[in-house]
Amino acid sequence: MSDPEVNDQQLMQAVGSGDHKAFGEIVRRHQTWAWTIAYRFLGQDEDAADVVQDAFLRLLDASSRYQPSANFTTYFYRIITRLCLDRAKKMQPLYVETTPDSPDPQLGVLEEMLRQETADSVRAALDSLPPNQRMAILLHYFEELNYSEIASALETTPKAVERLLARGRQHLRAILGARDNFSPS
Amino acid sequence: MLSCLRYRRRLGAFLDGELDQRESKAVETHLRKCVTCSAVLQGLRLLGPTLHTLETPAPPSDLVSKILTAARGRQQTGETITEVIQLHKDPQPAWTWALRGATAAALIIGLGAGTYMGLTTFRNGDSGQSLAGAKLNEYVEDPFYFLDALSAAPRGSIEAATLELLEGGR
Q: Which of A55, A63, A171, B97 sits at a 20 to 30 Å CA gap from B3?
């Protein structure tokens, strides 16, 4: 079942019929982007891993009811988004100091410090956003979803997404725009 | 300016290509004339690259195996999220509801019977004969008269008569 020509809808139908290998293939195909969304939203390894595991298990539970007409990615975005938002409600808002990655050998020490500082600032700025705005921003800027797709994931309307993005951007510019290095490299 | 605010609200959608042709053209025309809105749009353009400095580590190497292990465990127990929620609800067996209903009915019947007995005591007892006519009406008008039967010296009782006698002698 690791045939790349088998699409996700077909895999989900197989999972619904009890095919464990099909489920394994679904997990392998989508675990990275699921993790990426969850981590960017929550900012913490453990929480992100919990959400991702929960999301795949819910997918498994719902597989017998999955309709092949439904776009798998849209469906899975909705599950992950909902779990992230639920998780955020339980979490206290906090700023998490990210562990610096290995320094980029291409950059000098000063540039590396500036890069890290900017990354930390972005993390803090995102964490300060209300959960719905944060998710809209992430789905737009990192997943490159359009307003309709974001609306589907957030179970709202495209007009509401426009408002969420407008407020999120305003908030981020207020925090990040004051920095000297708020400019593309 | 009001018109500036109206256009500024749509700059994000304009940048994202979410406006229809007519709206997009209107924003473009406005941007040609408005330096402030053009600056705001430029600021919005810079936000994307800044956000992409956010670091995202790779997923844990054991994430896939953990998920598959958890899935196998659920398949063995037959547990699903739906079932877990139902287990926590813990439904009561039907006989407990029947017992509660019977208890409530017995209490209501007992209270009703006691009230009836109290009423008949007033109307038919020795002390009740002296309470004919206006006296009976007096007690009936008192909405709590039937509770008098529970007191230490209910009206018409020997205790009440004794108390009357004692108070009359003072």
A: A171
Same-domain check for residues A67 and A116: no
Residue from the list B9, B59, B74 with its beta carbon closest to the beta carbon of A166: B9
In this complex, how many residue pairs, one in chain A and one in chain B, have their CB atoms less than 8 Å apart? Answer: 110
A63 vs A71: CA distance, rounded Å = 13
ipTM here: 0.81
A102 in a structural domain: no
Interchain contact, A28 vs B54, CB within 8 Å = no
Q: A67 in a domain, yes or no? A: yes
Tokens, residue B60 = 């844990």
Per-residue model confidence as pLDDT tens digits over B64-114:
999 999 998 876 666 665 433 333 344 556 677 778 888 888 888 888 888
Question: What is the tally of structural domains in chain A?
Answer: 2
Amino acid identity for residue B6 in this structure = R
* Test the B interface: residue of A25, A27, A64 with most B CBs within 10 Å: A27
Secondary structure letter of residue B153 according to DSSP: S
Report the C-alpha gap between B64 and A25 in whole angstroms. Answer: 10
